[in-house]
Amino acid sequence: MDEAVMTALVAAGAAIAGGALTGVFTLAAAKRQARAAWAAGERQAAAAWEAGRQQAAAAWDAGRLQATARLDMARRTLTEQTLANQRAVRRAAYVTYLSRTDSAQPALTAWQSAIGTADESPRREDDAAAMGAVGEALNVVRLEGPDSETAAAETLRSSLAATATGARHPVVQRAFLGAARAALTPV
After folding, report:
1. Can the peptide bond before residue 186 be classed as cis, meaning omega within 30 degrees of 0?
2. How far is CA 112 from CA 28, 78, 126, in A?
3. Residue pair 124/111 in contact by the 8 Å Cβ criterion
């Protein structure tokens, strides 16, 4: 074989071997790059997952806090409305009761003044009717309460009994008014 062919064959073999060796190194480098890219992608995905999880947890906590605050506000509003309604009902009961006792006082005085006269019987009926109205209004006060106002109202009613002294009524009425005001004053 001639030397030129041999040189050509060696050059061709070297070119093939060099190309193969370059291919092996290129493939190894490509695999390293692929692994590095894969690892970087995994880290990015894990970081994105963690950030998303933290955002979701923060949103959940914020939603829970808002819901709790709204429920608390609704409870307070409902409580305030309930107490305002209760005070309004009590106020109406107390006003009616005071009105009835104010009407019963002159009826009692008129009956006591008419004892032994021809007017005694009708005045006694007027007093009985007025005291019946006081009793009905007292029952509403008993239902609405509270106990201290009920006790003051019962004392006021007893000051209108036929055997009670007339001077006691204004004192007892002021005591009931004080108790009623206390019950109607918002806390």
Report:
1. no
2. 124, 50, 12
3. yes
Rounded Cα distance between 157 and 149, Å, is: 12
Taking a C-beta distance cutoff of 8 angstroms, is the pair 157, 138 a contact? yes
Dihedral class, residue 126 (left if φ above 0, else alpha if ψ from -120 to 50, else beta): alpha
> What's CA 32's distance to the chain center, in Å?
62
**Angle (CA) 77 78 84, round 5°:** 90
Distances in whole angstroms, Cα of residue 21 to Cα of each of 10, 34, 98, 122, 167 = 16, 20, 114, 134, 126
Distances (CA, A) of 78 to 26, 69, 87, 140: 76, 14, 14, 24
The whole-number mean pLDDT for each consecutive block of 10 residues of the chain, a chain of 187 residues, reads 83 84 85 89 91 92 92 92 92 96 94 94 96 97 93 95 82 94 87
Residues 6+ apart with CB under 8 A from 126: 107, 110, 111
Rounded to whole angstroms, the Cα distance separating 24 from 169 reads 117
